[in-house]
């Protein structure tokens, strides 16, 4: 495992796909690098990910309406172009024989959900595909061999995107570990508890075991645990960085009753504050069935019964006979979500300390791009070629991709969509009354949180008192920073 007391050029905190990819890129550039993280990865998003190489399949109408949303799409698009060479290099540097397990993605539009979410998402995906001139094909849902839903969940339309694949995340993480070691990097099975600061710069990290790792540069890629490591910053600086909360996701590894699995990803558009229902082949009769999303202040390691019910109920949208299959494993991961919903990439303002996190659902897919970008920044390079990602610098005003009215409308729409996805059965005249209740409640939340800044809509649906307090503190810090001292 290497000597954790040794000095290295860079220590990367976090051993998910993002941190490991950066560690490998740095090791390939002949730097002495150590990646620190518990080998079991109990909270990591990567270990529980379906790992879709999703670019266009993740597009939503909201994403296309803002400049920063389109920048995120551009990052996804460029990351897609890197994956073939990235996978090939990993295969050559490790003992893995395959990392991708799905070839192509089929997006289905079925009778579940809400028109403005599902149909709107389906059309947004097609719009983005055409704008980027990416090949796709509208297909007859009845021609999809593996798909066999119950009649009430039948797909109305389907499109096949041949350039969107998926990755076996355990194989990817194993390949990254092997490649880093073979390049001379060090993997430390431990938990970082503190960033060490000396003479005004980060000089290493302290571990839960009591040992320390000295380094010239420290990169925090610790996902949903990142914010807790920022106590090393002056309070007024730390307050300007969006806190990172956890998007806890639950997924299931299912063994099909017949052993049949699809050749590629089958998914719905993003819906109900999550990435939509999706199935990813994992080989040997196993499929990955995902995934839920619950935004919480702290990472979690348990699955709620309601989340399991949602996933198991979703099998009717895919294959009726999945009900006779077996759940072999429940997967739980925590996606890192900054309070404004966008990644944290760059310097913290403290010399030698960098952030590389907050990627929400895009981290694994974007990891080759982000690793190259951050390695360039650390080595005084230009960052990702041809892309200005300075909007994602950690110390920034809150990014607002929606207006107040758009946030409110989206929160109400997806809240109602959640109910329909759960197949609720209520009197026909109740939904308008319930919708009006949520509109009133979310309006009150928006007014309470801030009169100017607008959070992502999921912060209204999921936010408890802890997250509300984080939002209030974060917004207040920026309002104070923008107000001259004599006017406060």
From TrEMBL:
Q: Does the keyword Oxidoreductase apply?
A: yes
Instruction: Cite a single GO MF annotation.
Output: oxidoreductase activity
SUPFAM superfamilies xrefs: FAD/NAD(P)-binding domain
Q: Which Pfam families match?
A: DAO
Q: Which UniProt keywords apply?
A: Oxidoreductase
Q: State a GO cellular component annotated for this protein.
A: cytoplasm
Residues in FAD dependent oxidoreductase domain copies: 9-377
Q: Does the keyword Oxidoreductase apply?
A: yes
Recorded protein name is: FAD dependent oxidoreductase
Q: Name the species this protein comes from.
A: Frankia casuarinae (strain DSM 45818 / CECT 9043 / HFP020203 / CcI3)
């Amino acid at each position: 495992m290497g000597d954790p007391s040794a000095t290295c050029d860079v220590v990367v905190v976090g051993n998910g796909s993002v941190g490991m990819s950066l560690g490998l890129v740095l090791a390939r550039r002949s730097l002495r690098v150590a990646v620190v993280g518990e080998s079991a990865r109990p909270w990591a998003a990567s270990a529980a990910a379906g790992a879709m190489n999703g670019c266009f399949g993740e597009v939503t109408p909201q994403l296309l309406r803002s400049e920063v949303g389109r920048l995120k799409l551009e990052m996804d698009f460029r990351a897609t172009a890197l994956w073939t060479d990235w996978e090939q290099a990993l295969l050559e540097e490790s003992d893995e024989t395959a990392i991708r397990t799905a070839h192509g993605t089929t997006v289905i539009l079925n009778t579940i959900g809400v028109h403005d979410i599902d149909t709107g998402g389906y059309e947004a995906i097609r719009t983005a595909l055409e704008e980027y001139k990416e090949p796709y094909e509208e297909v007859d849902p009845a021609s999809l061999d593996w798909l066999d839903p119950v009649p009430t969940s039948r797909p109305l339309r389907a499109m096949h995107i041949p350039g969107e694949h998926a990755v076996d995340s355990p194989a990817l993480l194993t390949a990254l570990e092997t490649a880093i070691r073979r390049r001379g990097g060090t993997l430390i099975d431990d938990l970082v508890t503190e960033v060490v600061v000396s003479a005004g710069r980060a000089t290493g990290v302290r571990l839960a075991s009591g040992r320390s790792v000295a380094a010239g540069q420290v990169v925090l890629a610790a996902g949903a645990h990142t914010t807790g490591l920022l106590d090393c910053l002056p309070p007024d600086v730390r307050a300007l960085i969006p806190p990172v909360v956890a998007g806890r996701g639950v997924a299931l590894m299912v063994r099909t009753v017949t052993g049949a699995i699809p050749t590629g990803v089958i998914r719905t558009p993003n819906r109900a504050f999550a990435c939509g229902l999706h199935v990813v082949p994992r080989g040997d009769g196993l499929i990955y069935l995902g995934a839920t999303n619950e935004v919480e202040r702290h990472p979690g390691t348990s699955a709620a019964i309601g989340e399991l019910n949602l996933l198991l109920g979703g099998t009717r949208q895919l294959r009726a006979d999945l009900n006779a299959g077996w759940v072999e494993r429940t997967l739980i991961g925590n996606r890192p979500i900054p309070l404004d919903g966008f990644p944290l990439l760059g310097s913290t303002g403290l010399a030698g300390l960098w952030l590389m996190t907050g990627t929400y659902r895009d981290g694994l897919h974007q990891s080759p791009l982000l690793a190259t970008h951050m390695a360039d920044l650390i080595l005084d390079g230009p960052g990702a070629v041809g892309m200005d990602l300075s909007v994602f610098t950690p110390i920034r005003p809150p990014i607002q991709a929606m207006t107040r009215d758009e946030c409110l409308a989206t929160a109400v729409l997806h809240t109602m969509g959640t109910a329909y996805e759960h197949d609720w059965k209520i009197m026909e005249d109740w939904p308008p009354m319930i919708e009006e209740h949520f509109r009133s409640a979310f309006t009150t939340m928006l007014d309470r949180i801030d009169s100017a800044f607008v959070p992502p809509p999921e912060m209204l649906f999921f936010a408890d008192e802890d997250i509300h307090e984080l939002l209030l503190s974060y917004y207040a810090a920026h309002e104070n920073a923008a107000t001259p001292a004599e006017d406060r």
